[in-house]
Amino acid sequence: MTTAAERLQEAGKADSLWVSPGRVNLIGEHTDYNDGFVLPFALPHATAVSGTRIPERHWVVTSEQTGETVTFDLSEKVEGWAAYVAAVVWVLREAGVDVPGAQLRITSDVPFGAGLSSSAALECATMAVLADLAEADLPLRDRPRLAQRAENEYVGAPTGIMDQAASTLCQEGHALFLDCRSLATEQVPFDLAAAGLKILVVDSKAPHAHVDGEYAARRKACEEAAGILGVAALRDIDVAGLPDALAKLDDETMRRRVRHVVTEDQRVLDTVAALRAGDLRAAGPLMTASHESMRDDYEITVPQVDTAVRVALEHGAHGARMTGGGFGGCVLALVDEEDCDAVEAAVREAFAANGFTPPDTFVVTPGPGTSNINK
């Protein structure tokens, strides 16, 4: 099976060709927009974008997935999948980059709507191509913030910075420990094979979307709670101070949201410590605790992902959790190599017994971030 980059190479010569991966988040969900900590790693699955300069100051974008071609300039708002491309053009111009007109082609191996950050992969690959075509000096460290702004302000999705940072900055064989306030990063070794482990991804096939009221409502609750507690963000409350903080909140739903974020930040720190020590299996119970917190306190899981987590644990997984924004998407299960097939089969059987759409399942290893293929 050809990769996304190979398909674009076969489509013909272009001035620029870059790929950006999707991501899974090992742990640290809904902490990014609270200035907290996250620990994603890049998938082997990637989005490829090729670009060729054209003399006109507009952009012609063709998607292999949809078969559509969209032409736009910035005189009016672009909608649909092409909005993510237009958003990058807009944010680069806002940043002072003289983006040339271009013909762009897009193809992707990242499952859409599965919570694997297909939108950030598209944004980051597009940004790399357009910066290349513009011959702009755009430091790698600045790109995640620009891509986040594109998604927040142009597309209208209130996402944090984790997805764009992971898609841009990850390194093969490592998880990316990211402080979402300072943007300090650490590449934490995550050698699953050496530990005799695998990460099994279960795509629940339950619909997943960020541009909706549920995600925004949780972000708003966190911001309101931070205001009541007199802190810049929930990151500023640690586990030791959590009881006092919760006592100051009258709303029970808001208390649950705060409890998830504060305890999730601590789980990220504990997971990083385990990986630094080479004890990858110790991440398992932390992953499971994260899922329970998302289910009970943040209330963002659905029956499909809860079933996948429960069944994986019953069949020997060291830990399992939903990854992504919630309300669908994927589950990660940390399993011994010899148990992977049994866990996968059990999850498929449970989905069939519950009348769920059959899941997609695949094993992932940490891959590289945004990469230049050729010119």
From TrEMBL:
Major location (coarse): cytoplasm
Binding locations of substrate: 29-32, 215
Domain GHMP kinase N-terminal: start-end pairs: 84-169
Pathway listed: Carbohydrate metabolism; galactose metabolism
Chain sites annotated for binding ATP: 63, 113-119
PANTHER family listed in its UniProt record: GALACTOKINASE-RELATED (PTHR10457:SF7), MEVALONATE KINASE/GALACTOKINASE (PTHR10457)
Name of this protein: Galactokinase
Organism of this sequence: Dactylosporangium cerinum
Primary gene name: galK
